[in-house]
Structure of Protein NRT1/ PTR FAMILY 2.11:
Amino acid sequence: MRGGGVREDEEASRKLKSMEVDKMENGGGEESPRPAVKYHGWKAMPFIIGNETFEKLGTLGTSANLLVYLTQVFHMRSVDAATLLNGLNGTTSLAPIIGAFLSDAYLGRYLALAIASIASLIGMFVLTLTAGADSLHPPECGVGEVCEKATSYQFAVLFIAFAFLVLGSAGIRPCSMPFGADQFDPNTESGKRGINSFFNWYYFTFTAAMMISATVIIYVQSNVSWPIGLGIPTALMFLACVLFFMGTKLYVRVTPEGSPFTSVVQVLAAALKKRSLKQPKDPKQDLFDPPHTSAIVTKLAHTDQFRCLDKAAIVASTEEVRPGGAAPADPWRLCSVQQVEEVKCLIRIVPVWSTGIIYYVAVVQQSTYVVLSALQSDRRLGSHGFQIPAASFTVFAMLAQTLWIPFYDRLLLPKLRKMTGKEEGFTLLQRQGIGIALSTLAMVISAIVEDRRRAIALSEPTLGATITGGAISAMSSLWMVPQLMILGLSEAFNLISQIEFYYKEIPEHMRSVAGALAFCNLALGNYLSGFLVTIVHRTTGSGQNWLAQDLNKGRLDLFYWTIAGIGVFNFIYFIICARWYRFKGASN
């Protein structure tokens, strides 16, 4: 409990701070310590958007067909290749968390992007060498032949390429979008419109790059040449680096201000030190709540959730507060109500965030076992013998996203606003729940289609065999399009609303990690998928292996049913989390 003298000092400090803030807002008082920033806005965009386009074409063109590359060029077993790819994708998606921390605390976004771009270029170049140099991959083998395995040296070079690609993703993924937004003045109307337009262009280039990678580049890799197919993305990444550095003189570079995680650790440390204190009877009077002067971060009111953390803001003695009452003497022993509530925001997000991990287990199948199923299906299109590359089937998921987003935004959303009376139509949590339900439905359809594909392969004449020896079913691979489009639709609901949810609910000065949280979900989803593949393979390997090298001898449909069952559990868990969740700024 604070004494009367301390309260008077705090009130005087509150008034003084308020006067200072008014002066700054009205252009009076002392000059702001921040130097004048010259925003070039759209003048810098050709370099940033050009860099973004070529970078996405390069990285996505390299990674989209890796499963086929590992099985056909490095002669890996499909289950081993899927496990390795899950681990690689998981690490690539987890690395942005570290990259966001280093960027905010030490490097700044420009330097982080510069280092990451060069690292990606090196990784792509080394990966292209593994395809072009005969000594860096096993010799080719024909259908039915015993293929020679890759040597330790060849795998070492391959993993070096992967390491550089992971380093590149650590800097590019969390920093590219905020760096583009940094180029516009957020305090002007034209700057705000510019930021909104930049986000639109960002998602447009991302989707366009994904579709080109999943069609043109994959076709070259699968039907022309692996060295050329990997060399094209490498050349595009080189162009991305050139464009990025050409615009250096125009860029606004935001100076790193230290890690926002320091405040989180301070709250946890202070609460732990004061764990023996009793809960305050009147939080408004008993907790340290100095004047809030930030023009960026929203002032958060006290909430009654996670009250054990409130102890970090209890003033145990007047010595814990500096003269004037506006700052703690030791920030590791006394924290403000604002700091405590920011930590509560993060903790409240965790249960909802965790549902995204299980959700992505279904999504990542489109880049692993869906590709393997396509390889053992009839991929012919028309009467001219053209075959759709197996890895290109992911384009149907992207197509669903591309078609749905403008349909929802322009046609469905206005009607939903009238029906629900809410500006956003479906709430962010409702959209996430719909996405989870759709992903479960996609797995059910996948199981049914795979069971049919396998039955046709075992009961009817086949169309030859794959390089790995599996018979090709006469069932058209186009039967897999519905499940992929439903998966794409689920991403349009869940992924976009996830990012928006984190952006709005995470405290403003921690928003650099908002996008990284979605990638972290994807990372853990890949790891969980790899773990499931390993468990199923070992558990069923002694009998009829569900994930056999030849899918016709396995039961991939049962694996899909398992993921669907997990999805039902995840949906129920999500509903519980969503009903419990309290939005930022909501009253008790």
